[in-house]
Design brief:
With 266 residues, the protein is of the alpha/beta class. The mean pLDDT is 97. It has a single domain, classed as Creatininase (Rossmann fold), CATH 3.40.50. The strands form two sheets. Strands 2-1-3-4 form a four-stranded parallel sheet, sandwiched between helices. A two-stranded antiparallel sheet has the order 5-6. Helix content is 38%, strand content 9%. It starts with 16 loop residues before the first helix and ends in a 5-residue tail after the last helix. The protein has nine helices and six strands, in the order H-E-H-E-H-E-H-E-H-H-H-E-H-E-H.
Length: 266
């Protein structure tokens, strides 16, 4: 089935051109582009983690969304800008320029079809800046095209209730949160017996600089981890994954409603 986690009635690619042409109130229809990656996630998780999380969270968000809210998922974009992981075999990466070009041309296609609200639902931490540039450039080019460059993990969710302070700060890749989610979403693809715990060594002490945050430094994964894991994967559980999945989906249902109700500032 092409739609995967997405309810078939919400899967844009199942529509016909006649249905798209006849769609009412098209300027307020919400189209959502899941953007993920194919990249290493340690010895225990599959390469598809980010793409799976985006699609699974969106699919469950649709379950919370009223049928009266017109919103559709585009087919997932599985490849992303993952060059921070390219020392690990299996990672497939696009350049920032290629990813931008693809998204710009997809956006232009949707605009030609009459749509005016497009959500970039990015689930890979290595490319939010690309989403920002695409959104701004498209809106500058088409003043009535409203593009929302959103990160899957930025909606309200319950991670702070489930993870340790150390994990919340440093568990940024294939750690407790992502492993727990995959145990809930794709349990057969998790090799939990190979899960490891690894945090970045020798980080600056008493410094304003950080791995991520307001004042980051540039790094590639090999600088910070030998296993490809940044976090405590061994603490993950299916129960935590179920709770995280539900809370992220509830947050995304709210975001989709907000985008539908969004009216441009005057």
């Amino acid at each position: 089935m092409m739609h995967g986690f997405i309810p078939p009635e919400r899967y844009f690619a199942y529509l016909t051109w006649v249905a798209v042409e006849a769609m009412p109130d098209k300027e307020n229809v919400v189209l959502i582009q899941p953007v993920g990656s194919i990249e290493q996630h340690g010895p225990h998780l599959p390469l598809v983690v980010d793409s799976a999380i985006a699609q699974a969270v969106l699919g469950k968000a649709f379950d919370y969304l009223e049928p009266t809210v017109p919103a559709y998922s585009l087919p997932s974009l599985y490849y992303g800008k993952s060059n921070e992981h390219w020392h690990f075999p299996g990672t497939v990466t696009l350049s920032a320029q290629t990813l931008m070009a693809v998204l710009l041309e997809v956006g232009e296609s949707l605009y030609r079809a009459g749509f005016r609200k497009w959500v970039l639902m990015n689930a890979h931490g290595g490319q939010p800046q690309v989403m920002d540039l695409v959104a701004r450039d498209l809106h500058q080019r088409y003043e009535d095209f409203w593009v929302f460059p959103l990160f899957t993990w930025r909606v309200p969710h319950c991670a702070a209730e489930l993870l340790t302070p150390q994990e919340l700060e440093f568990g940024i890749h294939a750690g407790d949160a992502e492993t727990s989610l995959l145990l809930a979403m794709l349990p057969q693809q998790v090799r939990f017996e190979q899960a490891v715990t690894e945090y970045p060594p020798d980080l600056p002490v008493n410094s304003l600089l950080s791995v991520e945050g307001a004042l980051p430094f540039a790094w590639v994964t090999r600088d910070l981890s030998q296993s490809g894991v940044l976090g405590d994967a061994r603490s993950a559980t299916r129960e935590k994954g179920d709770r995280l999945w539900e809370s992220l989906a509830e947050g995304w249902a709210r975001v989709i409603r907000d985008v539908y109700q969004f009216r441009p500032p005057r």
